[in-house]
Write a structure and sequence with these properties.
Elements (H helix, E strand, L loop, with lengths): L2 E4 L4 E3 L12 E3 L1 H9 L6 E4 L5 E4 L4 H20 L3 E3 L6 E3 L3 H13 L3 E6 L5 E6 L1 H35 L2 H6 L3
Antiparallel strand pairs: 1-2, 1-3, 4-5, 6-7, 8-9
Length: 179
């Protein structure tokens, strides 16, 4: 029985069973069908050669690259979030720390709803506890939330690029995604 293989669809066809066969389908032998399509080794994946005939190849090494790139993006995002941020809530720019403990302290200060002393650096780099009204500490919290959301959205967009590249099997596109 004559078989055909369509490289664009990765499917075999029998003229006796299929009313239409794709234009790119090429005839394949029974031996090729059995070795490449019906019983391929577990450590190989199907592809096709320049003539459209099915062949077995080593699987692309995309998942480790994807995993490493995802980890790099996550680390870069976390680093950017915890690197500190600037706010003008006090009337002039001050830098606030944003390590996880600092984030918890800021959230606690905002939730308390009170005027408070809160540590920050002025533009000269002098770090001290400065008085903040509730409105000011809330503004600091809102400024940080905005910056954090922007960084998380950037990481999400980059990871979507990674997902798309992995789905397409595009190693170059995977490696090209950078923070």
């Amino acid at each position: 029985m004559q078989r055909f293989y369509s490289p664009s669809l990765g499917t075999t066809y029998f003229p006796a069973m299929h009313a239409s066969i794709p234009d790119d389908a090429v005839p394949i032998s029974e031996v090729l069908y059995l070795s490449v399509i019906a019983n391929p080794p577990m450590d190989k994946v199907r592809s096709h050669d320049a003539n459209g005939l099915p062949i077995l190849i080593d699987p692309p090494r995309l998942q480790p690259v994807y995993d490493a790139q995802t980890a790099r993006i996550n680390a870069a995002c976390e680093s950017a979030i915890t690197a500190g941020f600037w706010s003008s809530a006090l009337g002039t720019r001050h830098q606030y720390s944003s390590e996880l403990n600092d984030q918890l302290n800021l959230t606690g200060a905002v939730l308390a709803g009170l005027d408070t002393l809160f540590a920050c650096r002025d533009e000269a780099g002098v770090r001290e506890f400065r008085p903040h009204t509730y409105a000011q500490i809330r503004q600091v919290g809102e400024d940080f939330t905005l910056i954090k959301q922007q960084l998380l959205q950037k990481a999400y967009a980059l990871k979507q690029q990674l997902d798309d590249a992995l789905s397409a099997g595009d190693l170059d596109a995977l490696e090209a995604v950078k923070w």
